[in-house]
Every structure is written in structure tokens, then in C-alpha cells.
Amino acid sequence: MNAAARHGFSKIAIDLPLRERVPLLLYGVLLFLAGIAIYIVLVPAGMLLDRMPDAPHAIPRALLLLSVTLVWAGIIAGAVDLFLLLPFKRRQRRVDYMGFDNRKVTVVLTAYNDELSIGKAVRDFSSHPLVQRVLVIDNNSSDGTGRVAAEAGAEVVREPKQGYGHCVFRALTEGVSFRDTLFTLLCEGDMTFRAYDIDKFLSFAPHADIVNGTRIVEQLRSRDTQLTTFMYYGNFFVGKLLETKHIGQGTYTDVGTTYKLCWNSALERLLPLLNPDINLEFNAHFLDLAIRNRFRVVECPVTFHSRVGRSKGGNASDLRALKVGMRMVRGILLGWPKARSAS
Q1: Residue 84 main-chain phi, psi, to 5 deg
Q2: Residue 133: helix, strand or coil by DSSP?
Q3: Three-class secondary structure of residue 328 per DSSP
Q4: What is the full DSSP assignment across 229-268?
Q5: What percent of the residues of the chain are helix, what percent strand, and what percent coil, each to the nearest 5?
Q6: Which member of 46, 152, 195, 340 lies 3.0 to 4.6 Å from 128 by CB, making a disulfide possible if both were Cys?
């Protein structure tokens, strides 16, 4: 039995009409790009082949026809989504506002071999007047992460299942269990984010079920972070891919950030839909499933700083970031793997 089931969460998924479920704009963009790629790459190659005396002369014309067909199919699919289906997908007709009196939050920090940074992170968040408590989810660290976190004043929870998805899932599940706070604030214990952005998160909270921090604002990020230019624009690209898939549901620029504020009432419904077996691409999975099931996700610009210690996640190198990014793209386009049966 997984953690969501143990806490009594019921699995709720929204069965949307077909016209709202099919991402025609996304398919249209892919068809259009495929057609352009065939024209740019394969048609010149076919023309060279056509100059050969024994080559079949129909190859260039067939490739050109395929290219034109894909381009027009993409244009038509995108136009249908934008001009015919978009009004049905845009369910929100006004700006929602959910007032609340209790502004206290439970902070959950994921950690894996973060001995150098976790104490500073715990003290930073604990010092914020709106933080009720700080939990550190220690994902089998081999250094003194748990000890340092406890000494800094955090409640330490050890997650035995290795992997980023399991660590985040456990963090959110623990955060929801507290009834004296309405919100769970998810972050990492590496000092890349700061507690003072909590005030910004709470200013967006009346309008959303989930407030997702975005690192895409150039003026709000340090120049010496592990986020390279490739990672920065690659993350932005995947965010726009997610936005294209869920056209009309919101604006998305950052799918990899770990800094987000969630209403506990929303998490109780969302957690059973998530697959904790998904690893470093879990945040994209989280957002995709939330938007797909019509949770209101709003982005909030946050500051981003250089980390303390060494990165163990997708930002360790451009090559690793590329691999994680491709898994994100695959999940967004083809769907996410189902969770393994839990004992």
C-alpha cells in the first residue's frame, strides 16, 4: 500500500469530453515540424539521389508530397484547436479568489547528501514568521544530512525508497498530514531557494490550487547557479510544450523547479494520481497530471541562487539535463508510466 492510500486519500480523476482531452495544437505543432524536417533534410537528399542514373525518380516527389501533407495537417490541427476547441478548453471565465485567514505553512525540504547546506536551509525557513514547522525528508543520505537538519530544528523523516519521485511524494504526503496549516510548501535543502519568497507564493495562493515557482525571470537568478544556458532555455522549451498540450489552461515556463506551494485540499486529491516511481522528471509529471485534472496551477517568479554543495539531480551536467529533459518530453507527449503495485 502506498503512502497516499495509507493516509486515506481517494483517487479522483476528471473524465473530460473528447474535445477537451485531445491536444490538437500539440499534435499540429509536431506534424508541422516533422513536415519541415522532411523538407529540409530528406528532400535535398532525395534530389541528390534523383541525379543518379539508376535511382527511382519518384522518391523526391514522394518526399515533397509527404512534407507538404504533414505541414498542412499540422496547420489544420492547430487551427481547429485554437479557433474551434479553445473556447471549450477555457473553462475559467473569471479570476477566482479564495480567501483564507490561516497563512501559516508547513515546509517540507527534500534532501540527499546535503550535509553542507541543509542546516542553513532549515534555519532560513524556520526564521520566517509564517512557517509553522520545517520537515526534512532524508532520502537515505550517507552523510550527516539528517543529524545536521535535526540540530538546526527540523523534524527529520527518512524515506527508505531511493529516488527523487519517492522523496517528493513522501514530502507532500507528510505535509498534508498536518491539520493546523492549509498549505504545504515544497522545496529542496540545497539553498538554491529562499524563504522570503513565501510571501510572494501566498499572494498568488487565493487564485490557485498550486503555485509553481518559476526560475525563468532573468533578473531574479544569480549568474553563478548550476542552471546553464542550455538548461535554462531547455526548461523553458519543455514548459511551452506543456502549455501547448494544455492550451487555454495557463502559462508555463518552468517544469523543473522544486519550489511550489500547494493547498492541502488539492494535494489530497492529486497525490493518488501521481506515480512516485518516476525519478528526476517527477516535477514535470506532477504539473502535467495537475493541469490534466483541472487543478489551477499558477506560476510565481522566485529568486534562484547558487547551491551549496554538489548537484545530484538533473542539473549535474548538460548531458544529464538533456536525458532528464527527453524523459520529460516523452512523458508529456506519450504519457507517463503507471506506478508499480505497492505492497
Answers
A1: -110, -45
A2: strand
A3: helix
A4: HHHHHHHHHHHHHHHHHTTTS-----SS---EEEEHHHHH
A5: 50, 10, 40
A6: 195
